């Protein structure tokens, strides 16, 4: 009986990892397909703003998560999952809520591209950091880097090449990837939950509260560090709030296959989406009062690329 249980677990783990890799790859390919390199060149990003972006995403958000998991008693798996997601920048929308043409989307695209590259580069270092909290990752540093390159970097660059060389093909592929990616995410989530349902219960109310505070703290950090311009603040608040849960999911599955860390990452996605939906409904109810994410409507992604293609894959503000 034990052999059968182990066999089934291995089977579901392999399926979950494959679906997660396909999901992240499809999402990053979709982002690359709708980003025009010429547009990114004209993004209004100065050295000071880029420095504040890196500060918010690589220092402030992880510090917020670290303070919360230190102050609130949580299971080790929840601590590891929250820290993992908080440490990885360059997130993208899992379920875009709206697509409206805004010129400032160039800034969002450029920052997502930059932070995605940073996330790939720091992935091996995150393994070392998590070891300090009692984690025993299965994957080596080289394996983690290879997974990050395979899931994020190669699809992103491939999409950029296709957009540049074959814009008509990119316009056709982007909507398909925008549909396929969420389907793969749901399939990966269901496959994971089948064998780790107990890990969902272990998160508890305190775990959910910490996740909500991390999301809110990330948006607030971006808003405060965005500078004097309200539109710049909204850009940074949006980009900082979107943690790279896709890469985090892959890292969790590869590094901690026998734990519920991947479940924590999946629940974090649900929490972030819920917070975003509640914030959107609240703004509609009070006439969109300005705040860390309420001016995000100024930054929502363009409905068509420069060549006329859809931008349904690029992060859009709420």
Kindly estimate the percentage of residues that lie in beta strands according to DSSP.
under 5%
- How many extended strands? 0
The total count of helices amounts to: 11
**In this structure, how is the largest beta sheet organized?**
none
- Helical fraction equals over 70%
CATH topology: Na+/H+ antiporter like fold
The level 1 CATH classification is Mainly Alpha
Query: Pairing-aware structural class of the strands and helices?
Result: mainly alpha
Tell me the number of structural domains.
Answer: 1
Radius of gyration: 19 Å
Distance between the termini: 49 Å
Low-confidence stretches: 97-104, 293-311
Order of helices and strands: HHHHHHHHHHH
CATH architecture: Up-down Bundle
SSE arrangement:
Elements: H1 2-34, H2 37-41, H3 47-71, H4 76-87, H5 105-131, H6 141-165, H7 167-195, H8 197-224, H9 230-241, H10 245-255, H11 261-285
Helix pairs in contact: 1-6, 1-7, 1-10, 3-4, 3-8, 4-8, 4-11, 5-6, 5-9, 6-7, 6-10, 7-8, 8-9, 8-11, 10-11
């Amino acid at each position: 009986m034990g052999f059968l249980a182990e066999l089934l677990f291995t089977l579901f783990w392999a399926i979950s990892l494959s679906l997660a890799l396909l999901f992240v790859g499809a999402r990053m390919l979709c982002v690359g397909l709708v980003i025009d390199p010429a547009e990114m060149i004209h993004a209004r990003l100065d050295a000071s703003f880029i420095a504040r972006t890196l500060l918010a995403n690589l220092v402030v958000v992880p510090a917020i998560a670290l303070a919360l998991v230190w102050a609130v008693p949580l299971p080790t798996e929840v601590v590891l999952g929250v820290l993992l997601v908080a440490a990885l920048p360059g997130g993208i929308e899992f379920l875009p809520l709206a697509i409206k043409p805004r010129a400032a989307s160039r800034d969002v695209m450029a920052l997502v591209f930059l932070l995605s590259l940073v996330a790939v580069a720091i992935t091996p270092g995150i393994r070392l950091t998590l070891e300090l909290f009692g984690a025993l990752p299965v994957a080596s540093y080289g394996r983690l880097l290879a997974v990050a390159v395979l899931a994020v970097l190669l699809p992103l660059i491939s999409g950029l090449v296709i957009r540049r060389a074959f814009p008509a093909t990119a316009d056709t592929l982007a909507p398909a990837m925008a549909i396929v990616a969420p389907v793969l995410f749901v399939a990966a989530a269901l496959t994971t939950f089948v064998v780790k349902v107990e890990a969902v219960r272990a998160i508890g109310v305190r775990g959910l509260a910490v996740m909500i505070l991390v999301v809110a703290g990330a948006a607030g950090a971006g808003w405060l560090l965005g500078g004097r311009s309200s539109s710049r603040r909204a850009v940074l608040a949006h980009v900082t709030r979107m943690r790279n849960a896709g890469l985090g999911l892959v890292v969790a599955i590869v590094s901690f296959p026998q734990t519920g860390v991947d479940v924590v990452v999946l629940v974090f996605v649900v929490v972030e989406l819920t917070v975003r939906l509640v914030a959107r409904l609240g703004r509609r109810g009070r006439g969109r009062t300005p705040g860390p994410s309420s001016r995000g409507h100024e930054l929502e992604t363009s409905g068509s690329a420069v060549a006329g293609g859809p931008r349904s894959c690029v992060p859009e503000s709420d």
